[in-house]
Design goal:
The protein is α+β, with helices and mostly antiparallel strands. It has 11 helices and 15 strands. 39% of the residues lie in helices and 21% in strands.
């Protein structure tokens, strides 16, 4: 392991970041062209591909730092290199179940790996190991590998459509012509962590890193998104259907909070992460080969799918009225139900839309138990 510690990846990474800041660029190509010759002369015995991967790492760090800086979330004037994870391409490492070999300054080092259960789950499911990997050194000369799996998945021709409407506190789906409302409890998570955040700050900025480390709001919501994405995708895969989603533009919360004066509602909308839920569904769909159709999201909840007329929502005492009346036919439509039929219609489904009743017809609500 002492040989591994002689890989000067940190030094090359810092030089690459300095060059990117000096030239005001995040381009991998420009950074590599600017430092490669100098670093190659300094580290003649080091495999050249370490310089390539260090430049890729620097490019990613600079790009991430610039995005945080634009949002006012950067804590330093420049990216700080606190942890180094060495990127490996197919020239720098060789994999087998018994031995993993890594090219270093003094030749190849062989390591006997110990695999966790999640590795065997993917490996035994016929997933392929990608050519790239990463590793970092831990205490006690322990090497932690990050192995990437890949799988060639072929998409199928869909037999039907499953439209999905994303909301602040729920996800509504249309399965076999029946609308179902899945409660995500995102509202309670947001408000609970907001109250907790206020209780522990005591005058400190909520941007304080120590405060953010104590809170697990992001992890909690990520877990919810992944569970619901898997649930929806597996249903679509089983029925050989395509998933229909709204093609949400950038800055969705900013558009939604226009005209909203309730501070608590504005907070909940900002932290609902609509695009993140959509991306989670799309990512899981790629894993299963489920086709995804993105449609125009405009007026999906305000246009009657039968008559094409505007749905009039009367105030019901809540922050957002859920049931409205078709201005032409007089049918009562639930906001989430009408959105599903409009999404399915815009995806190209010409199946007849059932007329809404004259009575309020909230969709059945399903609470997903954590576990």
């Amino acid at each position: 392991m002492q040989v591994l510690s002689m890989i000067f990846t940190r030094e090359i990474l810092e030089e690459a970041i300095n060059y990117g800041l000096t030239k005001n660029t995040t381009s991998f190509t420009r950074i590599k062209a600017g430092i490669y010759k100098t670093e190659r002369e300094k580290h003649r015995d080091l495999p050249s591909h370490y310089i390539y991967t260090a430049c890729e790492d620097a490019s990613e760090r600079l790009d991430s730092f610039n995005k945080l800086k634009k949002r006012g979330r950067s804590y330093t004037d420049r990216p700080s290199v606190r942890r180094v994870t060495v990127h490996l391409d197919d020239h720098l490492w060789k994999f087998s179940l018994n031995v993993i070999s890594i090219a270093t300054k003094r030749g190849r080092v062989c390591i006997s790996p110990i695999f966790p259960k999640i590795f065997w789950r993917y490996y035994n499911d016929n997933w392929l190991i990608a050519s790239g990997a990463r590793f970092k050194l831990l205490k006690g000369n322990v090497v932690e590998f990050f192995i990437v799996f890949k799988k060639d998945v072929k998409s199928y021709d869909p037999r039907g459509f499953i439209p999905v409407d994303l909301n602040e506190d729920s996800v509504s789906v249309l399965i076999n012509g029946k609308p179902i409302l899945l409660e995500t409890n995102t509202r309670m998570i947001t408000l609970g962590y907001e109250y907790k955040r206020r209780s522990i700050t005591n005058g400190r900025s909520t941007k304080d890193r120590e405060v953010r480390r104590k809170l697990r709001e992001r992890d909690k919501k990520l877990d919810v998104r992944r569970k619901f994405a898997k649930l929806i995708v597996k249903e679509a895969f089983g029925s050989r259907s395509a998933i229909v989603l709204e093609d949400l533009p950038r800055g969705v919360p900013e558009h939604m909070v226009k005209g909203v004066k309730d501070k608590q509602l504005r907070l909940r909308i900002y932290r609902s992460a609509f695009s993140s839920m959509k991306n989670a569904i799309v990512e899981k769909a790629r894993e299963f080969g489920v086709p995804v159709i993105l449609v125009d999201p405009s007026y999906t909840s305000s246009i009657c799918p039968v008559h094409g007329s505007k749905i009039i929502y009367q105030p019901d005492g809540g922050s957002a009225p859920r049931v409205g009346v078709c201005g032409k036919g007089g049918e009562r439509w639930h906001r989430d139900v009408v959105a599903l039929y409009n999404l399915r219609k815009r995806a190209g489904d010409v199946s007849p839309v059932p007329l809404g009743s004259k009575e309020s017809h909230d969709p059945p609500v399903v609470q997903v138990v954590e576990g």
